[in-house]
């Protein structure tokens, strides 16, 4: 039972929903303004570190993305907080 994170394209509100089936995805509306114009966000993962079994979030920042023009059309780059390019 996955929890999905959405952002309303009308008012910018970010909210989470527990969806039991793919069919429910078609009926998602903004929890604040009831607009059907919402987009699914990519959520940051939690990372377990050390041998103590503690779990800490990768970062408290929200992932961002940028869209650029590429030779094949448009390219999207996702910037995950706490991740460095090697």
**CATH architecture verdict of the largest domain:** Single Sheet
Helix content: under 10%
Radius of gyration, rounded? Answer: 16 Å
Report the biggest beta sheet as strand number plus sense, adding barrel if it closes. Answer: 3 strands, antiparallel
CATH class of the largest domain: Mainly Beta
How much of the sequence is in beta strands?
35-45%
The CATH topology of the largest domain: Rubrerythrin, domain 2
In short:
The chain is 5% helix and 41% strand. It has one helix and seven strands; from the N terminus they run E-E-H-E-E-E-E-E.
List keywords for this structure.
about 90 residues; two-stranded antiparallel sheet; 2 domains; 1 helix; Rubrerythrin, domain 2
Q: What does the model show?
A:
This protein has 86 residues and is mainly beta. The protein has 2 domains: 1-41, Rubrerythrin, domain 2 (Single Sheet), CATH 2.20.28; 58-86, no CATH class. It has one helix at residues 22-25; strands at residues 3-8, 14-18, 38-41, 46-48, 55-57, 64-70, 73-79. A 3-stranded antiparallel beta sheet has the order 2-1-3, with no helix packed on it. It has a two-stranded antiparallel sheet with strand order 4-5. Strand 4 (46-48) and strand 5 form a beta hairpin. The longest helix has 4 residues, at 22-25. The radius of gyration is 16 Å and the shape is globular. The protein starts with a strand and ends in a 7-residue tail after the last strand.
């Amino acid at each position: 039972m996955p929890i999905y994170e959405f952002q309303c394209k009308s008012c910018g509100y970010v909210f989470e929903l527990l969806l039991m089936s793919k069919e429910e995805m078609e009926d998602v509306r903004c929890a604040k303004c009831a607009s059907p114009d919402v987009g699914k966000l990519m959520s940051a993962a939690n990372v377990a570190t050390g041998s103590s079994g503690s779990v800490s979030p990768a970062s408290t920042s929200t992932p961002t993305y940028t869209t650029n023009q590429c030779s094949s059309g448009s390219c999207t780059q996702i910037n995950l907080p706490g991740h460095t390019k090697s």
